[in-house]
Every structure is written in structure tokens, then in C-alpha cells.
């Protein structure tokens, strides 16, 4: 983001904070994230987010409306419609404390699964756009192709990608596309809702929409299958989702027939992103990143209806 845009977004957050709370203490200010796809700044208890250039105003407004109608699941926005700042749409949110990555033993897997189940059970609003999970995975693969076209590590990632059905690559409608989904779930999409609730809520509505609910379970499923998520955390997550009546997997028995293809797609997406970042930084892969490449090699050699041994 340009310095001018950054400064204006900060002033916009300050104005929104003061409008929401005239006696604003004006503390805890600064940039929370600054990436090509989003810039997020905070002023006291108000957060302003600049969305990517080209974000559709109508679709984003519908996603904000969904968050407003589900305050027990999604953090509700402070304003019902986006503002405009240069070529960016800007939304406003209450600040919530994120999950602490330094304490993985206390990660709220059960709370996250319950929120996802509630989201999946809620009827989508009319004209809700499709969730953007598969399209986001496809963009990660395209970035990899552009960055590392001849890399040895790229080959198993692309082979695993091509083995997926068209819907998982964002090239066709999914077999089930009427469920309200988050579209990009991971623990970074959780914050503690401000007082008086003080409980967890999902954030980031950019990819929210209708689609296949297994996509929202796919990232933790992929981490588990690749050995990156402890079995007890996966069990806690899956059990809580089932107990809350989540429709993505059967209430009993083996969940993997439903999860296999989305989990493979998220493994490829994560591996592609890791390879692209490592290439741009001119650094070798770390142990976790290499494990993702190895998982893609196994997937490329195994039919989609079969799964990793650790996930069966």
C-alpha cells in the first residue's frame, strides 16, 4: 500500500472510531496487517480494512449484511456498507483479540468448529455470492507457476493439483453449492468478541459465500493428514463440529470420504504459497514447508478416493 493510502486509511479509522465513541482514548493505534490483498489498521477499539483493488461493492455489501445477521457467529461490522478510498473499498469493525500463536495448546479448536457448524446451518441471504475458496487455491497455483515454473519441488504440487476434480480447482460448480461457508477458515480468522460477550467470533468476510461446507474443514483436515496438527486437536475440532450438527460430514463414522478432495486442494494451496514465498525470499524450504511438498507427492501418486494413512 502506498504511504499516502496508508496515512489516509489511518485517518479514516480514527474518524470512524471517534464517530463510534466520541470519548475515544486514542490508544492502541497502528497497522495490524499490510499485504497486497488487504491492509488493516487499528485506532483504539475500531479497525479499518482496505480490501483488494477490484473488490465488488455489491458482493462485499452482501457479505457485510450476512455478518450483521449472524452476530453469534461472525464479528458484525460497524457500518453496513463499505466506504471508498482511492481504488479500495474500506470496511469498519470492532477490535477483537486474535488467537495467540505462542500458545498452541490453548487454541480454540472446539469453539471454531462450533462457529463453523452454526454458519453452515444458517440459510444464506438472497443473492449471496459463491464462496471464493477454490478460486483462491487456483490463484495460489497460478502464482507458483509464474514464480517457479521449472522447480523440482513444483512438479509434485502441480501434479497433485491436476489430479483434483474441476470443481476443487475452481473450474466448475461444486457438487453441493448452497451452504453458507466462510471460504478461508484458519485460526487466524478468529478473534475474541469485545465485551460484554468475550467469546470467539469468525472474522474476514472476503471469501464468504455459498459453496461446499467441507471446504471450511479442509485446512485443519489437511494439517492433520500431513502430521502438522496433533490428533487430539483434530479430534476436538471434528467432535465439536459434529456435536453442533454441522452438515459437512456424517454425524458418525469415517469423515474422510467427504473431506478428502477439499483437504487435498488446501494442501496444494498451502504448498504452492510456501514455495512461492520461499522463492521470492531466495531461501530454502523449512521442515514444515517440505512436509507439504512431500504430501503433494504422495497425493499425486494416490487416487483421490484414498487418503493419507494418518487420516484413515
Automatic annotation (TrEMBL):
Family annotation (Pfam families): APH (PF01636)
The name this protein goes by in its record: Phosphotransferase
Matches recorded under InterPro entries: Aminoglycoside_PTrfase, Kinase-like_dom_sf
Domain Aminoglycoside phosphotransferase: 41-248
Lineage of producing organism: Bacteria, Bacillati, Actinomycetota, Actinomycetes, Kitasatosporales
Amino acid at each position: 500500500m502506498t504511504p499516502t493510502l496508508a496515512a489516509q486509511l489511518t485517518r479514516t479509522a480514527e474518524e470512524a472510531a471517534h464517530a463510534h465513541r466520541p470519548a475515544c482514548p486514542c490508544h492502541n493505534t497502528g497497522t495490524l496487517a499490510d499485504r497486497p490483498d488487504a491492509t488493516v489498521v487499528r485506532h483504539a477499539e475500531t479497525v479499518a480494512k482496505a480490501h483488494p483493488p477490484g473488490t465488488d461493492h455489491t458482493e462485499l455489501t452482501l457479505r457485510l449484511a450476512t455478518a450483521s445477521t449472524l452476530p453469534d457467529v461472525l464479528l458484525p461490522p460497524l457500518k453496513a456498507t463499505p466506504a471508498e478510498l482511492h481504488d479500495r473499498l474500506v470496511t469498519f469493525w470492532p477490535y477483537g483479540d486474535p488467537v495467540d500463536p505462542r500458545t498452541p495448546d490453548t487454541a480454540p479448536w472446539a469453539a471454531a468448529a462450533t462457529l463453523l457448524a452454526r454458519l453452515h446451518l444458517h440459510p444464506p441471504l438472497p443473492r449471496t455470492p459463491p464462496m471464493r475458496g477454490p478460486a483462491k487455491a487456483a490463484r495460489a497455483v497460478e502464482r507458483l507457476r509464474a514464480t517457479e515454473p521449472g522447480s523440482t519441488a513444483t512438479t509434485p504440487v502441480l501434479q497433485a493439483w491436476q489430479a483434483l476434480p474441476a470443481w476443487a480447482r475452481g473450474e466448475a460448480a461444486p457438487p453441493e453449492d448452497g451452504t453458507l461457508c466462510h471460504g478461508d477458515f484458519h485460526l487466524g480468522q478468529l478473534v475474541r468478541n469485545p465485551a460484554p460477550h468475550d467469546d470467539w467470533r469468525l472474522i474476514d468476510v472476503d471469501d464468504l459465500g455459498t459453496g461446499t461446507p467441507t471446504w471450511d474443514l479442509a485446512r485443519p483436515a489437511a494439517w492433520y493428514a500431513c502430521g502438522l496438527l496433533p490428533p487430539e486437536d483434530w479430534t476436538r475440532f471434528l467432535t465439536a463440529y459434529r456435536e453442533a450438527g454441522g452438515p459437512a460430514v456424517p454425524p458418525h463414522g469415517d469423515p474422510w470420504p467427504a473431506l478428502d478432495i477439499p483437504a487435498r486442494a488446501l494442501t496444494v494451496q498451502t504448498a504452492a504459497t510456501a514455495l512461492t514465498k520461499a522463492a521470492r525470499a531466495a531461501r530454502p524450504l523449512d521442515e514444515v514447508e517440505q512436509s507439504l511438498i512431500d504430501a503433494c507427492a504422495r497425493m499425486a501418486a494416490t487416487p483421490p478416493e484414498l487418503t493419507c494413512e494418518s487420516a484413515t
